[in-house]
Amino acid sequence: MSASEVKTCLACRKPLKGRADKKFCDDYCRNNYNNQQKAKGNHSSFVRNINNALLKNRKVLESILPGTEETAKANKEKLLNLGFQFKYMTHIYTTKTGKTYYYCYDYGYLPLDNDWFLIVRKKEE
Ligand SMILES: [Zn+2]
User: Fold this and answer.
1) Of the N and C termini of the chain, which has fewer Cβ atoms inside 10 Å?
2) Residue 69, φ and ψ in degrees, nearest 5
3) 53 is in which domain, residue-wise?
4) Does residue 73 register a pLDDT over 80?
5) Distance between CA 89 and CA 65 in Å, rounded?
6) 106 in any annotated domain
7) How many A from CA of 24 to the centre of ligand 1?
8) Are strands 71-75 and 116-121 parallel, antiparallel or unpaired?
9) What is the 3-state secondary structure (H, E, C) of the chain?
10) Phi then psi for 106, rounded to 5 degrees?
11) Inside any domain, residue 98
12) pLDDT band at 125 (very low <50, low <70, confident <90, very high)
């Protein structure tokens, strides 16, 4: 570290005086910074959890509809047992005839009667 380098407070970015290992002006800045980091951490784990759930959902749908089949059917119990979480989806597609497909990336499902679902794969465009 060069002598001309001025260390700044991690919280408020003001130049720091005093001990070389100081990171904050005072306890107020230290607490502020720690709270910010905590909030950031929570946010990223929140995002990560949702991403994981979406990828898991896609994997479940893919396992039911592998290979070259265009559609497959599964009931709610099977989907839940495989770890599918219905609250997570990437987008919704409603057809002209009013059917609503719920998608997790390129895989989707259409709710049928009696808790059955038609599993579909998005066609290449
Ligand atoms: Zn400060």
Assistant:
1) C
2) -60, 145
3) 27-121
4) yes
5) 17
6) yes
7) 5
8) antiparallel
9) CCCCCCCECCCCCCECCCCCCCCCCCHHHHHHHHHHHHHHHHHHHHHHHHHHHHHHHHHHHHHHCCCCCCEEEEEHHHHHHCCCCCCCCCEEEECCCCCEEEEECCEEEEECHHHEEEEEECCCC
10) -95, -5
11) yes
12) low
Q: Is residue 22 part of a domain?
A: no
The rounded Å distance from CA 25 to ligand 1 centre is 4
- Confidence at residue 4, expressed as pLDDT on a 0 to 100 scale: 56
Matching residue, tokens 């002006």:
25
pLDDT at site 80: 98
Number of domains present in the structure of the chain: 1
Question: Which chain residues have CB less than 5 Å from ligand 1, an ion?
Answer: 9, 11-12, 25, 29
Q: Compute the distance from residue 46 Cα to the ligand 1 centre, in Å.
A: 28
Question: In angstroms, what is the C-alpha Rg of the chain?
Answer: 25
pLDDT > 90? residue 89: yes
Q: Which two tokens stand for residue 45?
A: 């784990």
First to last CA, the chain: 56
Distance 81 CA to ligand 1 centre (A): 51
What separation in Å is there between the alpha carbon of 41 and the centre of ligand 1? 21
